[in-house]
Each structure stands twice: as C-alpha cells, then as structure tokens.
Amino acid sequence: MVKAVAARLVDHGKPLAVTEVDLPEPRPDEVVVDMLYGGVNPVDRYRAAGSVDGTSPLPRTLGAEGTGTVDGRLVAVFGHGVGTTRDGVWATRVVVPRSALIELPDGIDPRQAAVMGVAGVTAWRTVAELAQVTPSDRVLVMGAGGGVGSIIVSLVHRIGATVWAQASAPSDADRLRALGASEVVGGTADDLAAQVRGLRPTVVFDPLGGGFTGAAIASLVPRGRLVIFGTSAGPTGTVPLQDIYRSGLKILGYGGLRDSDQVLGAALATSLNALASGKLAVAIGQTLPLAQVNEAFELLAAQKVSGKLVLDLRRPPPAG
Question: Does domain 3-115+282-312 correspond to CATH entry 3.30.300.30?
Fold first, then answer.
C-alpha cells in the first residue's frame, strides 16, 4: 500500500490534521503525482469551515491547485473535483484524474506555477477576456497587494498600459512598483477618488467591494469598465447609480468557479504559457511546509500575506 502525508479536513471548523494516509489504487483514468507545491487560497479556508462545498465527503485532503511530477515530467494539477468532491493536492503524493493534469512549459518555476490555477487564471481572464485591456488604457488595480491583484499589475504593465496599484500595506509599495505599477496609493475608500484623480482610470479591477466599489465607479472616466472579482472589504455597498448610466460605464463580474473544467483548463494552459513567456509575473509572499498548513490559514485570516501563499509539499528527508 502506497502511503502519503496529507492535510486532512476531518470536521468543518476544526484545524486540519496532518497525518499519514493510504492512497487508493489508481484506476485506469487516474495517475499518482509526487507533489511539489500547492497554492493556498481564501476559498480553501471557506471549504475548511464548510461554507463552500459543505456537503462534500469527510474526511478528505484539501488543496485545489498545485504542481508535481509524473514519470519525471512537471505537471500542474487543477480541476475535475480535486480538493472539492475528491481528495486534493495538499499531500506528499496524490491520486488524481489524468484529465486534471497540464504539463508545465519548459523553464517555468513549479512554485509559481502552483498558484496559477486560481490566481493566475483569474488574473488572465479578467484582464484579457473581460476588461480586454489594451496599451491605451489607464488601469487602477485595487487590493493589489493580494495574490490576484499583484499578478494583474504585472500583466497590465506588460501589455503596455499605465497601471496604478491600491494597497493597504505600505510595505507592498516597492514590490508593486517592481511589478510595473507607476504609482501606489493607500488609504480608505473615502480617499480613493482624490488619490487617483491624476490617473483618470479607464479600467478598475476590484476584489474589495464594500465602500471601495462606489469609489471606483466615481473615479472612472466615461465608457470606463469596472471588473469585480471579490468582496474582501464587504459584500454590500452603496454605488452612485447616476455615474453608471450617465457615463455609460460597464460593470463586469468574474465568477470562475461556475465555469466548466474544460474552460478553466484551457485558461490555465494559456496563463501558464503567459508566465513562461514573461507576459505576467507571480509574487510569492511566503512558503510554508505542509506541517504548518493551519498557520497558513491564520495568515490568510489576518491578511498578513503579500502576494501568494504556497505550501511546500515535498516529503522531508528522514531525520539523521
């Protein structure tokens, strides 16, 4: 029997148990992957709490995206029920459907590739498909210190558009400028309109919600586009309706979890190629060993991570 060390969700709302498990025998349409790295996302916390996928079987291994090796080949693992309706990737070794694998392009960093299934796909699709950013755009990225926002900053900069970043932590400023932000602003929602008056944004990316959404709408020029992909600052807020219709604004929502595995898999392959070719960059904020998976959740809850949070899933060498 093949064994692995895995982060197991035993009861909703309880810490994950990092323990040894027996792997099932792979079926003809499955494969064993030796895992390297796994991405950690807010939705993983929601799954652990039971507010997302609360009816999925327990106990199970969490983790919906990661990278590993199969027969010496580097692969990304994502979708097809991994980490939701079946065991996920937060383990030293996993059994997954072959359809959940995408071979990594040459020269790609597997630690960066491990976060592309969620953050990378979200960044690529919101910029390229929804907003359709061009070099003539002036773009404001709110919540730019986060995993998706920082990737959007890099992608918009490489397209050739002007990009400003909004981030709550002053420590994020240098990193965001290195990714391509011309200016970095902070402050509250009430401060936003005055701070970005010099930009006159044609596009705003909003993962915050709350009062920030109304402020973003007020800052947009006529015919501008607002892309909403999260509500970390609050799920409700007041918006200036007259600004929307008088200025002919477009409000676009991204809900990637509703799309099919085929759509998301194609987007992941495209975004991985973009990472390999330098069209976007991934900022890894912190990497923790698998044994510290509950500490990773605490960092997310306290919003103490800049960039992406990654788990190192490689089996540690034996002591001595």
Answer: no
